[in-house]
Amino acid sequence: MRGSERVLDRLEREQALDAVAGRAHAFWSKALRSPRLRDLLSGRALGHPLHPAAVIVPAGTLLSATLLDVTGGSALRPAARRLIGLGLLSAGPAAVAGWSDWLDTDGAERRVGLVHAACNIVGIGCYTASWWQRRNGRSGVAKGGVAGSGLAASLAGASALGVGGWLGGHLAYALGVGVDTTAFQRGPADWTDVLAAGEVTTALRQVEVDGVPVLLTRVDGRIVAINDRCTHRGAPLSDGDRDGDCVQCPWHGSRFALTSGDVVQGPATRPQPVYEVRERGGRVELRRSEVRALRANPVGPSPDRVPVG
Known about the structure:
10 strands, monooxygenase activity, Rieske Fe-S membrane protein, iron-sulfur, alpha+beta, 6-stranded antiparallel β-sheet, elongated, Rieske Iron-sulfur Protein, 4-stranded antiparallel β-sheet
């Protein structure tokens, strides 16, 4: 196991972080209790989490300021200070969006997310100190390399943000936080018999088709089918509550339209996959709609590609 993997594995298992995580969770749960605010912060209108997009401005401006410090000389120090100011102003909204996403994590994801946030807080603190030092006329490295200078604080901040970014990448690409939990599920390509039509009522019913959990119910007398695994964190929607023509996730309260799979209320950002349904001879049959490449062939080379060599 590589050194970086050992660090991450230990971090994921570090139960000493749970007490701090619990207090942070209680604080942010209270601060972000408004469903409309969670909707905004989750990125429902964008169709994917807001936080990864929101961090571009603070990360870009702050790291650019450090680059100007290192390569631009004293003539560009005023520009670096202005970039730091912009980065600090934009860091708040990006951080709150991140905390909103973090609220719906648990276990290893919550621990890594907590340290990810801590690294970013340290980085922002260093850049705040750097901006203050520059405001007082101490932009460069102080005599003897004193760490309180603007440049030294900027370099320390860049290092902390780098570690935070590395952990953020692990959260998304290794632990799957923010990833559509149905992204690699397929469902049947051909019409597949599921059950008798009389067994489907207005209640929420789960069936398994080709290894994929599917939620069946009736809307205005018509049978509809959506993926039963919530795209947000994987909860079984059939365990949730029906609210008119919507289903509410039992874990985090996201609401989805039963006919279209659209997200009506977050924190989910991705719609539920919808399956085509028909009744034949008193039986219900369904099949998937057109799928994307990764869903159709999640492992191995694409069947329509010629192997190299």
